[in-house]
Design goal:
- By secondary structure, the chain is an alpha+beta fold.
- It folds into 2 domains: about 150 residues, Formyl transferase, N-terminal domain (Rossmann fold, 3-Layer(aba) Sandwich), CATH 3.40.50.170; about 80 residues, Roll (Methionyl-tRNA Fmet Formyltransferase, Chain A, domain 2), CATH 3.10.25.10.
- It is built from 7 helices and 9 strands.
- The strands form 2 sheets. It has a 5-stranded antiparallel β-sheet, with helices on one face.
- It is elongated, with a radius of gyration of 22 Å.
Length: about 240
């Protein structure tokens, strides 16, 4: 965020950072924009802003709606073992991620993808198609369609410091999905070794026989090897979280 603010200042663009609801609504009313476009905003747009008349309010959600109404759709899709994810362009309404859909596009989600890999893939696709999508919305060529409420699912925000803890009693594929979903620049999946918190950056799974002692860990040539329910997790890259 600091880099964005520095760029806006240097370029001379007017901006307002996390304004109070009424100040935000007043700004939109005075500017009278054709469209208010929201992208990757982690806070709910105030009702006073949504109530401003004669302004289209549009959001880009980095996930598939209505299935992934949440703050972390890419991470959740990886954790769930999905083979596709995508983005959704929809109307901004008071209920989070519930607005009618203008456009939805899927992209593949590969077995080795981290959340960063997927996010960059989505952004790369948006760089190509977003200008034409917004133009078509403005000129009325794209009509918003109500979401299928029967498919709607809300996920709570991810608490990385709770959900990130690895459970070696779980299957290897499930553990690997969590590692990839939480890999840097997110806080990272973690475990404790000799009372030290270890953040996993990169690992792979070797399927094998059911472990008699899940969680047994050993070091080998700079790697950490942990037994899980159905094999071993080879942790190639990690770091110690220091207090």
């Amino acid at each position: 965020m600091d880099h964005t603010l520095d760029y806006l200042k240097e370029a001379g663009f007017p901006f307002i950072y996390q304004p109070p609801a009424e100040a935000f609504a007043d700004l939109v009313s005075r500017l009278k924009p054709d469209m208010l476009f929201c992208f990757s905003h982690t806070r709910k747009i105030p009702g006073a802003v949504l109530a401003v008349e004669n302004v289209r309010k549009v959001n880009c959600h980095l996930g598939l709606l209505p299935e992934y109404r949440c703050l972390n759709p890419v991470n959740r899709a990886i954790i769930n073992g999905d083979t596709i994810t995508g983005f959704t362009i929809h109307e901004l309404v008071d209920e989070m991620d519930a607005g009618d859909i203008y456009y939805r596009e899927t992209v593949p989600l590969d077995r080795e993808d981290t959340a960063l890999d997927v996010t960059l893939r989505l952004i790369g696709r948006l760089k190509v198609c977003l200008p034409s999508i917004l133009r078509d919305i403005y000129y009325g060529k794209l009509r918003a369609v109500p979401q299928d409420q029967e498919k709607a699912h809300y996920y709570p925000p991810i608490d990385y410091f709770i959900e990130g803890l690895l459970d070696w009693n779980r299957p290897g594929d499930e553990i690997m999905r969590k590692i990839r979903a939480f890999a840097p620049p997110w806080p990272g999946a973690f475990f404790y070794l000799e009372e030290k918190k270890i953040i996993v950056e990169k690992a792979f799974f070797l399927p094998g026989e059911k472990a008699s002692d899940p969680g047994l860990k050993k070091r080998l040539e700079g790697k950490i090897i942990a037994c899980c329910r159905d094999g071993e997790i080879i942790i190639e890259k990690y770091h110690l979280l220091r207090d």
